[in-house]
Amino acid sequence: MKEIAYNCFEYQQTEGFELILGYIPGYDQEQLENEHQYDDIEKFNSLYSQIAEQIYSESDIFVTALINKSRVIYPGAPVVGEKVYVIKGTRNPQYTEDKEGYKNAVNRIAEVLATYLKQTTYSIVWRNERYEYFKKE
Length: 137
Description:
Elements: E1 6-22, H1 29-33, H2 41-59, E2 66-72, E3 82-90, H3 99-116, E4 123-136
Antiparallel strand pairs: 1-3, 1-4, 2-3
């Protein structure tokens, strides 16, 4: 078997985010237990993609994301937890040099998603990360 060579583009520091966003308006137990269109991750991914493309056309920054469904447990939360999506991403300096532009694009995507999904709150955690990007020669 022939070995494939990859070039490593190592970056000492870049920014990563984790967005936690509910997708069911309000905290009504009955509503949380019923089926919701965004219980289907493919539908949510499609919504995210449309919004990310819109922000990309405005800013020339595409926010690539890893999206997972989860539940959040907190005081006053429904017994089974609030249904949320956890959206993670890391700025790849190879494609997006503008740190502030990236942060603004992430914030804009979060705002548009929250508004569309009728959410009153969401959270974003920002982290400085060591990033290594590998590309096949």
